[in-house]
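Exercise 3.2. Students should predict the tertiary structure of the chain below and write it as structure tokens, then compare their answer with the key that follows.

Predict this chain's 3D structure.
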Amino acid sequence: MTYTTLASALWEAERSYASKNPKSAQAYGQATDHLPGGSTRSSIFVHPFPLFIEKGEGGELTDVDGHVYMDFVSDFTSGIYGKTHPLIRSAIISALDNGLQLGAHSTSESHLASLLCARFPSIDLIRFANSGTEANILAITAALRHTGKRKVVVFEDGYHGSVLSHFELSGSNWGGTHDMKVPFDYLVCPYNDIAGSDRVIQAHSDEIGAILVEPMLGAGGCIPGDIDFLQYLRTKATDIGAALIFDEVQTARLSTGGRQKTLDIVPDMTTLGKFFGGGFAFGAFGGNRSIMQMFDARSSGAISHGGTFNNSPLTMAAGAVAVEKILTEEALADLNQLGDWMRDSLNEAFESKSLPFKMTGLGSINQVHCTLSKDSRTTGLSLLFHKLLGRGYWIAQRGLISLSFAMTRKDVEGFVNAVIGCAEEVGKLAR
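Answer key:
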């Protein structure tokens, strides 16, 4: 009965959504003429069709039908600066005045590199790429070359980019039911399970060249890695002669040196992406000198790593000003404390009111989960998504919530109240 009631409510919510967004529906129909499924990015697909956004300003989005939403997705953590930031805008304009593409080295490239090396305990040397996906592929390849081994340890529900995911994707959340992978020789271990992981690793210890892990699962549900588990991986990687890689593409925003700094666990390599390009496409991989010096073109037998846009002047300039002047220790601490308050407030309300939701995460990166039976979870979460849209709040349909510097405490307080109200409406249908 619960599922039927929720499904009917979701059907009605989607019907209302469609009637309120005719221009988005039209734009989506036109997009399907040239894009498979009308999209080129699975994670932003929304049933029955996605909203088309006309503009963004500060912490708000305006769609083509004129509706305004407070953005609590923040482009899946990459939009930490909000939609507009004067310092980044100024840096971009200056870079444009000096030439769009130079095809050569620039001082902003080495400046950004120096800033990132200073922030992360594990990074002696760093290379740039164009996405977190690229950074992870390059880090794995470098680790295998350095160790001379072939197997890569990854973890269930881990996501390291569009071709490096290790979970089945939900159709309602991602617009697809299967993932695809670069064909490395993987060993998939259970996350946060020392005993289960150790059984797999011990059985292949002579063959493992890389261990790739998110300090907090991102797309896998914002599940923090246990300190003991991450420390086990550090110790085990050293014991078997493998390179430990921390994917901090998302968790880098949890402190000025990512989660590795807060936990005082130093991996051999770190991958970065998202916001360190100041809003442009960006990726980076770095690590200890013994690994990264393989890319030194002055050495015989150096690894070649090209990429036309690796050091794009716009990205380098925007990234440098963002890291140096915006992503400060104080600003990140304030944002993460606000996220912790939001999560604690919502979980307290969910529990005290017996609502079928919970929130997991760390700092400014969180995810709301529906706790109903397996058959009802996706429906309950989608219904919450549509109800929040009706109140002017944008979250990811899969439940991801990411804060930005454009938000105020008042904005987040309003959001908390809206989530509680919408969760109560869903809860009544689930009883």
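Discussion points: The chain has 14 helices and 16 strands. The longest helix spans residues 329-352.
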